[in-house]
Amino acid sequence: MENKHIYILLAVIFILSCIFNSFILFSKPLNEDAYFSLRYVENIKENFLPLFNDDLSYGGRAIEEPFLFYYLLALFSLIHISLIKIIPILLASSLVLITFLISINFTSKRLSLIPAIFAGFVPAMFGMNLISSTILAFPILFLLLYSLNKLENPLFLYLFLILSFILPLVSFLSIFYIFAILIYILIMGIEKKRIMGLEKEALIFSLFVNIFITLFLFRNSLLAYGPAFILQNVPLAILADFFKEFTLIKTLGSIGIATLVFGASGFIFSFREKNSLFLSSFLITSLIFLWLKLVPFENGLIIFSLTLASLSALSLKNFNSYIKQTKFSKYKEKIIVWIFIIVILLSVVPSAFAVITFQSKVSKETFVALKFFSEENKDKVILAPYEYGHAITYLGNKNVADSLFLLAPLPEKRVKDIDLVYISQSESLVLEVSKRYLVDFIIFDKYISEKYEIQKLPFVEDKKCFSKVYDKNEVEIYRVKPAC
Fold this sequence. Notes:
Layout: H1 3-27, H2 34-47, E1 53-54, E2 61-62, H3 68-77, H4 83-103, H5 113-120, H6 134-148, H7 154-170, H8 174-190, H9 197-217, H10 219-225, H11 236-245, H12 248-255, H13 257-269, H14 277-291, H15 297-324, H16 332-356, H17 364-374, E3 381-383, H18 389-394, E4 398-399, H19 411-423, H20 427-436, E5 441-444, H21 446-452, E6 466-472, E7 475-480
Parallel strand pairs: 3-4, 3-5
Antiparallel strand pairs: 1-2, 5-7, 6-7
């Protein structure tokens, strides 16, 4: 296959990945966490400063969040507001090109199209919040991995050094990168391979830059929680529920069976050559982070899948060499064609299903209700599941809790109190929680009904303390009367 045809196919894969991501961002309700990014961007455009304090979240709290991604979106949004969605689409699809570049270090350009397909169609990617700093962190992580093997070239050396500065300013995944470097050094020691010269200096520099900037950005969190700040103060109940949702079958579906098979084989071969050991360290680190619940399951699964995609180049290289030495060599072209067909069926098709079935916890009907309601009720406290928190603050009201738990006041208690309101049969308990958080309104919709397995809120029958102020498209909002 000529290089021209290869690049055309690569462009097709990239464009198709863009289309999948565009469908989610332009045709579906936004992921519930995307509203935090939108609000952060609006804050930068209005004040030119990061969002250090949030008066609407948790009734008022400090925020420590890497800010560079939000400045990037704010800058592009000045050109056109739709770029807030287009930039994340391009960033997510850029993983196709980056994985292709990583793969051609190990195998032919033609076979490198297969890892590119794996990277462009990770089913888990189509369920995450695309308008988030993480979507920029993924390309940076894998560009760091790619440039590490090309440090002799001054261009890639500067790229590696610049990205080392940028990563901790973009995402909390700098913690992942720090551990990946340490795991890489450990693997090199076990394999009795020495890190020499420029690579050693670049890695040490990158390691300390990421440690220093991360500790500086999260200094208050470090003082508040100690080393446990890595856990981001996520309530244990939420962690347990989130990891419980991912059964073996669902996890395999989120990774992709073909990606897992080819990537796992590549991981075994990766210990044969030095330039693939950093890939192995990424895979091992992602498994450790998932096992210890140090990273949101979805993010850890995506890093794991993308690393498997890159490692698949090694299994394809060895498979290609093996075929050449057997009697099947005369059927090599047909075998490769069938591999492409299988890869498309096991990667693109599940991803298409993930795109079609994508659902935000904050449905279109619920967001419309909150928006309509908020026009005349600004700065009111709305009690809702923590998943709704960012949508509530984005529209100008106060929440009881949201998904940004770091430095939040008593997030575990607040989440439990919210759950109590929806599952309790006791009106006095609901009123007690409402007084504790100065709640003005309580929302009820289809997602809440399914989450708590209830058909209605029993306590709202008391007209003395609760009155319905909104009822449309299966969304209800109730006022908590101040006299109660």
